[in-house]
Design a protein that fits this description.
Shape: elongated
Number of helices: 6
Helix content: 25-40%
Bound molecules: 6-{[3-(dimethylamino)benzyl]amino}pyridine-3-carboxamide
Radius of gyration: 22 Å
Distance between the termini: 36 Å
Length: 224
Amino acid sequence: MKIDVLTLFPEMFDALNCSLMGRAKEKGLYELRCHNIRDYSADKHKKCDDTPFGGGAGMVMTPQPIHDCIRAVDGEHNALRIYMSPRGKRLNQQIVKDLSQCGDIVILCGHYEGVDQRVIDMDIDMELSVGDYVLSGGELPAMVLIDCVLRYVPNVLGNAESTVDESFSQPLLEYPHYTRPQEYCGMPVPEVLVSGNHQNISKWRREQSLAITRKNRPDLLENK
Ligand code: 4G0
């Protein structure tokens, strides 16, 4: 899979060189290319923003550098072009799985009050949001998207981390996990987990999942 990111702050994506995602890139399991939108500005001061028509607070990203950058990166429109925005469709695990199957992706990261609508109309296939809150830029949402999509790319996760029975693919939230030592700070691991009785363990985990879901995300239990 190839991912092209359009941003005013390409350095932010150095964060993806760490951990699992860093290893996946080293192994050549995906290719990430970050493009600085400012490099495409035809303005003599490389300006990329301007005041909004109609007035109001904040600045809007100017269409020319973005449109030229997208054409340079994906001129044939082979990729799915995504704009990260608080008004986008809310990302969920099903969208993540679908995106992992869809081929190459271009992600546009906005700043300020977002980008000129004409660029969205001309060049963007899909607007996505990572949640109902506003950030100073679309870069962190883009990194969230990249991380969760790459987890479904073959061989990115090891056996130990597989995606098969995770929260959000199932209807319930995760049960509590424990590892060694069996007692820590005076707190023992729940007896049932060291009992060796796998039927009881499954039952306990399901009960815990239900209790946690009821407490934190009762909406997931509605009409079930
Ligand atoms: C577009 C995405 C982009 C419009 C981007 C801000 C949160 C998300 C941006 C705005 C972002 C998200 C209207 C302020 C950049 N913040 N929830 N910030 N406005 O996915």
